[in-house]
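in:
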């Protein structure tokens, strides 16, 4: 780890590093985007719920400005009056509050997505370390946050000034209007003001989102040694990989041994090689090797063949050639067609002879093997 700390982190984080960071609760977040989402949806909500708000505000105002003398001095009535006003306000604001709540849940989907991680809220001493705090205060991220704060003040302040200037005369005229029209005009001014403010925060959010994504990936950057260590950890230690390969070989060995009983013939060395062939004769262009092995695997193949009455034939040059030049579940090479055909014909004749349905073959087949497919006896 000490060696890694001195290396420059110039490489982009791997997907595994990003996934681990997400598990730890580290994802890019844009507060500006969340704020903008709430404001935008709030403004849109005002457009749709404006009439309900106007009607609710009118009822509350009328209810509060039309109190009789006796009711004014009755303390019990004032409590009931306050309760009625709060109920009316809640009913009027409920649709808009639901829209804003929906925006609050929708905002995080823009950058980072929803994330529920207990690690993010787990107490950590590094968060209250004064030295770490000073380091964060004078980091590039702090400088960017300061510039964003000034930009927000400048942009929002400018837009607010323009909105106030634009609606100043209309706002002053509200005091000359009757109650209900004044409320409707006030809501109209409010909605348009919020929309203008939303437009200003949207500019800041558009600039903030790519910065947050860049800052998050930069924080997770890796050195070349980090990538190598992760690759070793992902692929596993050499001894573990060796064990996996051993298990894979054993599984393949069991699968091959399971195919021997279905073979038409097992050609042997006989002391070193053994190959099992299947030839269906129905649309197959050539015999297929279903199992092959050397030493103990060859001995096991012969034992299984004997137990299942699978014909065996000693043909060392042919066994070596098939073993060397053919894969499992693959057809034999074209150069060995004649030799294998002679073996299959010989096995068939011997089977007919054993059943009393034919004459015994007078000699073993020649089994010619092309020079390019021959394997010396000492070649394993």
């Amino acid at each position: 780890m000490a060696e890694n700390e001195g290396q420059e982190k110039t490489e982009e984080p791997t997907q595994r590093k990003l996934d681990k960071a997400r598990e730890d609760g580290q994802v890019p977040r844009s507060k500006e985007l969340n704020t903008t989402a709430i404001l935008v949806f709030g403004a849109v909500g005002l457009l749709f719920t404006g009439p309900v708000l106007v009607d609710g505000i009118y009822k509350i105002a009328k209810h509060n400005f039309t109190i009789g003398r006796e009711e004014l001095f009755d303390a019990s009535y004032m409590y009931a009056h306050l309760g009625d006003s709060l109920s009316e306000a809640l009913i009027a604001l409920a649709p808009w509050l639901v829209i804003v709540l929906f925006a609050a849940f929708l905002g995080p989907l823009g950058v980072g997505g929803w994330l529920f991680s207990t690690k993010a809220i787990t107490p950590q001493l590094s968060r209250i370390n004064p030295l770490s705090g000073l380091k964060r205060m004078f980091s590039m991220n702090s400088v960017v946050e300061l510039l964003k704060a000034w930009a927000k003040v400048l942009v929002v302040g400018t837009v607010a000034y323009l909105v106030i200037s634009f609606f100043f005369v209309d706002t002053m005229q509200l005091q000359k209007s009757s109650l209900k029209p004044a409320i409707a005009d006030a809501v109209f001014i409010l909605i348009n003001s919020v929309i203008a403010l939303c437009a200003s925060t949207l500019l800041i959010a558009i600039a903030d989102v790519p910065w947050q994504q860049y800052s998050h990936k930069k924080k997770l950057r890796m050195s070349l040694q980090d990538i190598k260590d992760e690759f070793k950890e992902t692929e596993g230690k050499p001894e573990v990989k060796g064990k996996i390969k051993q298990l894979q070989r054993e599984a393949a060995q069991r699968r091959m041994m399971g195919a021997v009983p279905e073979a038409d013939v097992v050609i042997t060395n006989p002391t070193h090689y053994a190959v099992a062939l299947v030839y269906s004769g129905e649309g197959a262009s050539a015999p297929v090797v279903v199992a092959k092995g050397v030493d103990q695997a060859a001995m096991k193949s012969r034992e299984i063949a004997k137990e299942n009455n699978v014909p065996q034939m000693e043909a060392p040059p042919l066994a070596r050639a098939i073993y060397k030049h053919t894969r499992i579940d693959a057809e034999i090479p074209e150069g060995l067609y004649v030799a294998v055909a002679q073996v299959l014909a010989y096995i068939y004749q011997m089977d007919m002879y054993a059943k009393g349905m034919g004459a015994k073959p007078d000699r073993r087949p020649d089994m010619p093997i092309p020079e390019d497919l021959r394997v010396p006896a000492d070649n394993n």
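note: The CA atoms of residues 232 and 238 lie 9 Å apart.
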